[in-house]
Design goal:
190 residues; 7 helices; mainly alpha; elongated; 81% helix; 2 domains; Helicase, Ruva Protein, domain 3
């Protein structure tokens, strides 16, 4: 699910995905800088004979405090930006869930006939092509519906090319049941 979420966001909002990756790198760099500052202070404290009168140590402490405050401020801003990005990414979760459901439908075809095996790469290529080909919409909910509908139909058509005629209806039924179960329109009764 996370893999497909990253793919759809990268296709739909490449700016967000790039910003998220940049933030991850920048947060790691800032944490390393903080650690280096702490290590420097500890080293100076341990080597100083009289910490209260050591001008070099006091200057280093003041510089470290300023740098530490600056880094913490940047990290807080980065965390807020990351939360905003995650909120936007969360809007695309329905696409990732639908994609996951469809992937397992295709995977389950191997239980019908071992010949029906499809690679993740093949599946992902159809998914990415569907994102690019699905009709655009001004409203995000409509765009998500368009992507899900287009991908479902595209996957169905591509899979049916390789199915025996007698298994096509079974595959359509499997897709329908799993999609309706996800939408809570039908339930499994044990």
């Amino acid at each position: 699910e996370d893999q497909m979420l990253a793919r759809v966001v990268a296709e739909e909002r490449p700016d967000l995905e790039e910003m998220k990756n940049t933030l991850i790198i920048s947060n790691a760099t800032m944490r390393n800088e903080l650690k280096a500052l702490e290590d420097t202070i500890l080293e100076k404290l341990s080597t100083s004979e009289n910490p209260v009168d050591d001008i070099e140590l006091i200057t280093a402490l003041e510089a470290s405090k300023a740098k530490s405050t600056e880094i913490k401020t940047k990290m807080q801003a980065a965390e807020q930006t990351e939360k905003d990005i995650d909120l936007t990414r969360a809007e695309y979760v329905p696409v990732a869930i639908n994609t996951q459901i469809l992937f397992f439908c295709v995977s389950d075809l191997a239980n019908v006939d071992p010949m029906y095996q499809y690679s993740l790469e093949w599946f992902t290529n159809i998914f990415l092509t569907s994102i690019q080909s699905a009709p655009r919409a001004d409203v995000l909910e409509k765009r998500i519906k368009n992507i899900n509908d287009y991908f479902t139909f595209s996957l169905y058509c591509n899979v049916c090319r390789s199915l025996f005629e007698k298994h096509k209806l079974l595959f359509a039924f499997l897709l329908t049941v799993r999609i309706l179960m996800n939408q809570k329109k039908i339930q499994m009764v044990s």
